[in-house]
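Box 3.1 A note on notation
Throughout this textbook, protein chains are presented in two layers. The first layer is the amino acid sequence; the second is a token string describing backbone geometry. Keep the layers aligned when reading.
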Amino acid sequence: RMVREAKSRGIGVTAEVCPHHFSLTEDAVRGYNTLAKMNPPLRTWEDIQAIKEGLCDGTIDAIATDHAPHAVQDKQQEFAEAPFGV
């Protein structure tokens, strides 16, 4: 909403989104699945729909990667210690 509002006021702002934020919900991290631990965290189905709307109407300008490679053993740690990233 903030980006859409800023753009409607003529403020020169851009926005990007990563594929996992419009394809996975917070359900992926239930059970403390470290493979789905990311920052910002995954959100709801409704948020995914809002992201898709933003992509379609030009509010979101780009799809970007969040390339954060980690060794398998790093992601197999306890949830609190596991690194962010997919």
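The chain has one domain: 15-75. The helical segments are 2-8, 45-57, 72-75.
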